[in-house]
Amino acid sequence: MIPTRKLQLRDIIVMSAISIVFGILYLIWIFAAGLLSGVIGPMGGALLSGLWIMACIVCAYIIRKPGVAFMGEMIAAFTEVLIGSVSAGSVLLLGFAQGIGCEVVLALFLWRRYWLPILMLAGMGGTTANFITSYFVSGWSQFSSSLLMIMLGTMLISGALTAWLSKGIADQLARTGVLNDFALGREKLQQQREESNRGLRAN
């Protein structure tokens, strides 16, 4: 059955807080990508492209409700614009596309499976959406077919690896106990109880 639970206030607060932090980081990463692209060309942005889907992966993995990946990414994009991005239109468009790309993958699993392979697929969905959008709005259509294929492959790998990193960050947060009221925190608590019970039975 598809989850129909609405977002609660605490979900919105935590999602917003996480996304704002990533929105600030996104702006910093823009400058890093610009420097790298100045050295190795458009591949610089492709290598780092996965960094811009971290908000949607972290938020979705923690809260596990429909729409969280998309909303988290849009909040991060709006934050990026508000604190100083000079290209508001493209930032918001890319944020929209990346959020949709991640959300669609999670929707295919009815927002009920948040295993690492699925999160990595969601990350790849986000960077694929980035690639398609950039092709039409950022002049990538001028690149050769071979370069575009290499860039797409690089972005897919970047999205998968960044999703793996995002899961690790969220798991570390969950271990502190601050996420016990959320789906991820409850899952970790259940795992701890099961491990404790197995230990007692073994003794």
Q: How would you portray this structure in words?
A:
The structure is a single chain. The chain has 203 residues and is mainly α. It has a single domain (9-202), classed as Arp2/3 complex 21 kDa subunit ARPC3. The protein is 77% helix and 0% strand. The protein is built from eight helices and no strands. The protein has helices spanning 9-40, 43-48, 54-63, 68-82, 88-108, 116-137, 145-175, 183-202. Helix 3 packs parallel to helix 7 and helix 4 packs antiparallel against helix 5. The model has no long low-confidence stretch (mean pLDDT 92). This is Thiamine permease. It comes from Salicibibacter kimchii. The chain crosses the membrane at residues 12-33, 39-63, 68-86, 92-111, 118-137, 143-165. Pfam families: ABC_cobalt (PF09819). Keywords: Membrane, Transmembrane, Transmembrane helix.
